[in-house]
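Lesson 9: reading folded outputs for more than one chain in a single document. The general rule is that every protein is listed as its sequence immediately followed by its C-alpha cells, and records are never interleaved. Here is the first one.
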Amino acid sequence: MTAEFSEKRHSQRLPLALPIKGKCLGKLLHSHSFQGQTQDVSYEGLCIKIDSTNGFKPGQDVALKTRLYPGDFLLKAQGRVCWINGMPDSDWPVNMGVKITHMHRYRLWVERIENKMIEAVVGDTQR
C-alpha cells in the first residue's frame, strides 16, 4: 500500500510539526528573527506557520534551525521564501513556504522524512 497525498508536487509532503527558529538573511543592520512550527515538510522544503508576515517576502533568504526529534541534534539549513499565505484575521495562522537551498546533514533529513512516511503508511495499514 502506498501513502495517499492530496497534492501532486515534485516531492511528497509529510504533515509534521517541528519547532523552527530562524532569521532573514541579507539585511546588514536588521535581522528579523522568527519562531514557528512546520505544517508539513518534504525533501525540498517546508511549510512553516509563523505569527506575522513582517519582514518576509518571496525571494527572501532565511536561515533555519530545527530538531527532528526531541533531544536530537540541531539541523541547520538555509532556504528561500517561495510564498506567503497571510490571512487578514489575526486568528488565522500565517503560512510561509520555504525551499531548502542548503542543509547540513541533508542525507539524514531525507532519511528521517522517509522513516516518518513509512510510519504513516504502516499506521494506515494497521487501522
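And here is the second record, again sequence then C-alpha cells.
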Amino acid sequence: MKRMATIIVGFMFVLAVGALLWPNLGSQARADRGCVAFQAIVQATLPTSTPLAATDVWGGPLYGSLGGEVLLGILSGNDGSTTGHGVVGQGRGGSYTVGTGCVPGNLYACTDSFTYEVSNAVWPGPPGKIGFGHYIGNTATIVRGTGRFQYASGNLNVTGPFIAWEDSNSPFGVYGRFNAEMSGNICGIQ
C-alpha cells in the first residue's frame, strides 16, 4: 500500500511539473517558426554611396533573399573603433543598417530597416599587398529595427574581399570597394 501511494504521488508530481512547463514549450516552438533564412550581397563603397547616418562611411546597394522573398535595399554603416596590427586590421563596435523602401536625400530614409552590430571584426590582408584584404565580421547581432523589422532579432555572418587606395579627393584620404556576403537567420519579422 505504501508503494502504491508513492507511485500515485510521483505520478501527480510529474503531471504538475508538465502542466507548469507546457505553456513555455509552446511559446518556444512559436518563436522558432518566426525565423527565416537571410542571404545577401552588397557592393559597398568608401565613402558610402547610401548614407543613413552622418557617421556612416561604408555602404551601397544590397541584393538579397529573405526566406525566398527577393530583398532589394541598401547597407550603410561603419566599423566602429579601428586599429591595425601588421597586416591585420580590427574593428570594435561596428554598426551597420540594412534598409528597404529607401529614398535618397541628404541622408537616405527607409521604411523598413534593421541594424546589426559587430562587436569584433578583423580584416587580414595578404603580406605585400597593401590595400587588399578580407573582412570577417561573423559576430554580427541584430539589435534594433523599424517597420516590418521592428521586432527583428538574429545573428549574421558578414564576410568578403575589399580594396582601398589613397586619394586626396576623398574626405577620408582613401577610397574603397567592398563585396560583402551576408547570411544568417532573422526572427520576428512582421
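What the second record shows: The two ends are 57 Å apart (CA to CA).
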